[in-house]
Amino acid sequence: DAVFSGTGMLGDVITYTFTATNTGTTTMTNVVVTDPMVGLILTGNPIASLEVGASSSAITGTYTISQTDIDAGTVSNSALATAQDPDGNDVTDISGTTKENDTQTVTTLTQNPAIALVKSAVINGAGILGDVITYTFTVENTGNTTLTNVTVTDPMVGLTITESPIDSLEPGDSSDTITGT
Questions:
Q1: Please, which pLDDT band fits residue 66 given cuts at 50, 70 and 90?
Q2: Cα separation of 65 and 111, whole Å?
Q3: Residue 25, exposed/middle/buried by CB under 10 A (0-12, 13-18, 19+)?
């Protein structure tokens, strides 16, 4: 089970609850959940024992949403439960969305891509015939996803644009390196 704080934006926390259930016919001991997700912090390990048919949700994990996650639009996760049977043998199961499957838990994140463009001009000279107007295009990423291949075009006849495209623009970043004359 995965629940996130906030609205699923950068820096919000996803809390995973791992419910371990003994579906066998003998008591299980030393129930441990491991999870390879980088940045996930697990608490509640180990569960000392689980009787037949018993469940425990004592093990939880927290994960802070990164920009990479927002750009992907989802966070996918699975974990591994390991316990010992009465003979000391390991019994394992990969987490799933139900007891019957090993389907990763997928948390969908809200993507709000947005961009703003401001065009400013400076006249090089007195503003007479033959003087050059230099335009500066300030592009700002006003959304929450990383923008790539940001290109500025302008239908003005005779305008030459330089420094376009911008390879990548992170949320909140802006660039005024694109100019036109």
A1: very high
A2: 13
A3: exposed
